[in-house]
Structures are given as structure tokens and as C-alpha cells.
Amino acid sequence: LIGKTLGLILLLAIFGCREVPEPPLVTGNGLNVVLITLDTTRADHLGCYGYAKDTSPNLDALARQGVLFERAISSAAVTPVSHASILTGLHPYSHGLRVLHGLEENTLSTSNPTLAEILGASGYQTGAFVSAFPSGSRFGLDRGFQTFDEDYARPGSSPPVRSSGIVETGLNQRRADETTDRALRWLEGVEGPFLLWAHYFDPHDARLLPPRSYLQQFRRPEGSVQDWLRELYDLEIGFMDREIGRLLSVLRSAGRRESTIVVVVSDHGEGLGDHGWWTHGVLYEEQIHVPLIIAGPGAVAGSRNDALVRTIDIVPTILDWLEFHPSVVESVEGRSLLGAVRGQQAIPRLVAYADSLNVLTYRPWKGWADEKDEMLFAVSDGEWKYIHHRNREQESELYNLVEDPGETTNLIAERSDIARLMRKNLEERAELSTSAPDTDGMSREDIERLQSLGYVQ
Ligand SMILES: [Zn+2]
Questions:
Q1: CA distance 453 to 362
Q2: Sheet containing 352-356: which strands, arranged edge to edge?
Q3: What is the pTM of this model?
Q4: Of 258, 276, 354, 390, which residue is 20 to 30 A from 436 by alpha carbon distance?
Q5: How far is the CA of 369 from the centre of ligand 1 (A)?
Q6: Which residues pair with 355 in a beta bridge?
Q7: Residue 40 burial (10 A CB sphere; 0-12, 13-18, 19+)
């Protein structure tokens, strides 16, 4: 009890003055935390979410050990903004990281602590292994991590797997096997409770493919370049899944699995042609509905929960599970899902929010470009979803997700009463008048890196 009280005082100290206290002191029950983020991974392309192909045997096994959330919604459909919400439990308008690119000061706001800062101040060893530039320190996502491994850019050293029509140009990312290797090396030297964040980037694009030995198991399907890119997308998910399985199996064989909370979530999905969009950056369900699996001591193994939840609910769930004081758990905008994870409590009706302040141009291959000059804001209660178009309000959209999960029939004219209420919800967040940071402050190096990922022209 004394330890917990002291831990709380130290935490209040970081909330107040933002200095990491010395000496560190372990708070709570000392469970470990492994947070795995799957970049660009659609929920409906995983076996445990009903996909017909066997893309995810290891994640499926994890789902059988924990709780699978059927309807988890991300805060954004671009990597840094979404990850900032996952790491802070805050909506984008509160954590301050609004767009993928922007002015130098367009980083995660320092006025709220990250999960890594909170756990680090409580004696945890904190390590992050990220696989690409958009989830790196440039955006402030390293805050609180004692080890932050973003050593992904190595010219010429990636295996040049070329497939017809696909030219590998972006080397500012690394494959799942290397990220798992590095995370495991770090874990070997860690004693006591730890927070590990492993970020996997493989499904993001076809510029860095799984090793040839892995791809040789599969045959290229007949058909269009789109068919082949969809197939590659699934193969990359499969390879990433294999490497996540390796990470989790080492945890198990080291006897650490029983004392570890494991959270797996995507930052966003991928269009793959749905709604006329190949990549990500807009707010339809295939892009912001993400897989979320939570396992750990006390979780009801193999259960599935169909309540609407948000990626901002991850941080408070972890803090609650680690027995942090309610004032810490409730200091963020998300809500703890621990009662549901333990099968003791239903989740109240929540509202999910997402935005996209500068929809970018992305050219996944020659002859195709995702382009939209728009600022998008979405709210959903799980039944109704409203997407506000800031630049062309007449194009705003309202869908009934129960009747029309594919978002094909815009009901904004028929149900203007509901649209008005949901628009009001956005106004109450002071969101509709916000403006997007521009690119004036970007360094040449930043622009070149983003270009090599295909984010800007
Ligand atoms: Zn991403």
C-alpha cells in the first residue's frame, strides 16, 4: 500500500511538472505490458474476424486466449495521428498530433503523459521497436521510452524482392522479422516489469516484401495488378503474424506470458479499392474499424465483445489492469474496458470520433492515385455514423451501420434529424473550425522520407 501511495505521488508529480522522478518505483501489481500495433491491417483480413483465408493463425490463437473486440474504432486513418491516440488514450484534438506531415511543432503535445511516461515513472523498463518513419520520434511518439529503436533506414540492405509491376523503392521501413529480432534481444536484458511496444509495418505497402523463402510458398494469382496487390497484402499480414507468433512464443517459453498483458491493435485499415480508395486516409469502416485483441491474466479466454470501443480505451484499460489509482485511469479520454475483459461488466454505449485533416495523395502504383482535397470528421455510436466534409458540406454522409455495414447508402437527406445531432456532437468538440497545419515547416529530409513511402507526390 505504501508503495502504491508513493507511486501515485510520483505520478501526480509527472502530471504536474513533467519530470521523471528518481529513483523509480514499481507501482501496482507489476504485470508486464506488450503492445503490438499492426500498421494498415484491416480487421476483416484476419481469420479471427472471419476472413476466409488463413492469414493470421497466431493472432487467432491469441484471440482464443483473450478477448476479441468486434467493433473497435481508430481515431484516424493515418499512422502518427492514430498511434498518438493509442499511446495516450486521447482524441487527436487533445493529443495535438493532427496530421502526418506538418510544421516542426506538429508533434504529440507534451501537456499529457504517454503510457510509456507513466509506466517509466513507476519503475517499468520501457522499450519500443518501430518499423517505419511515420511511427517514429519525428512525431514525438518516442516520449517516455528508455529504448526507442527506429533504425529502419538502411540503403541497399533490404532483400530486393521484385514482383511484376511492383518496384521496391522505399527502404525507410523494416520487416517484421527484424523488428521481432530486436525486440527479443532487448527483452533478454530486461528484468522486472516492462512495457514493450512492437510496431509492424509489413502490410503498409509492397515496397518491402517478406523474404523470398516465405513468398515461394504461394503462387501469384491470375488477374489484374489490383488482384496481385490484394494477394501481397494478405501475404504480408501472414508474415507479420508469423513474426508476432515468434515474439509471443519466446515470452511463453521464458515463463513471462502469465504475467504479461498483451494488446494487439491496428492503427488503421486499408481501402483496397473499397469506396474508390486504395490506401488509407479517409474514414470509411474498412479504414477505421480495426482489430483489437486483449489477453492477459484474468481475461475471459476466447470471448468476443460486440460493443463499440475505441483505440483511446487501450491506455486506461492497461492502467486499470496494473492497479493504478482511478485518478490516473480516468485522466484520459478513453474508458477502461477491464470489466469487460474480465467478463464482469458490460461496456456502456460509447461514441467514437475520428478525423482526417489533410487527406493526402498516395500513388500505390502507376495509373492509380488516391486524391481528395478535404477535411473529414466522423462520429459513430455503433448504429449511426456521420462523416462531415468540411470543405464541401453538401457531400457529408450518414450511414446506418446496422442495416448497411458497407456504407453504400447515404441517408443524410432522409435522416437529417440524426445528422444534425451528430454534427452538433462534432461542434461541441470545437472541431469543425479547426485548420490543418501545412507543410511549410517540413525539412527537406522529412519530405524525401515521406515521398519514399509514397505519401506525397
Ligand atoms: Zn499506419
A1: 9
A2: 352-356, 376-380, 384-389, 397-400
A3: 0.89
A4: 276
A5: 18
A6: 377
A7: buried
Task: Kindly give the confidence (pLDDT) of every residue in the chain, 457 residues in length, as a single tens digit, with 9 standing for 90 and above.
Answer: 344 444 444 454 444 444 444 444 556 789 999 999 999 999 999 999 999 999 999 999 999 999 999 999 999 999 999 999 999 999 999 999 988 764 566 789 998 899 999 999 999 999 999 998 888 888 899 999 999 999 886 565 443 223 322 223 456 789 999 999 999 999 999 998 999 999 999 999 887 889 999 988 887 778 888 888 899 999 999 999 999 999 999 999 999 999 999 999 999 999 999 999 998 999 999 999 999 999 999 999 999 999 999 999 999 999 999 999 899 999 999 999 999 999 999 999 999 999 998 765 666 666 777 877 889 999 999 999 999 999 899 999 999 999 999 999 999 999 999 999 999 999 999 878 776 665 444 555 555 555 555 554 3
Collapsed DSSP state (helix, strand, coil) of residue 198: strand
* 412 Cα to the center of ligand 1, angstroms: 30
322 Cα: distance to centroid of ligand 1 (angstroms): 28
**Neighbour tally for 227: CB within 10 Å:** 12
Name every residue whose Cβ is closer than 8 Å to that of residue 391 and which is 6 or more positions away in sequence. Answer: 373, 374, 375
User: How many angstroms separate the alpha carbon of residue 343 from the centre of ligand 1?
Assistant: 31
Instruction: Kindly give the distance from the C-alpha atom of residue 359 to the centroid of ligand 1, in angstroms, as a whole number.
Output: 14
Alpha carbon of 311 to ligand 1 centroid (Å): 13
Interval between CA 78 and ligand 1 midpoint (Å): 5
Distance 280 CA to ligand 1 centre (A): 8
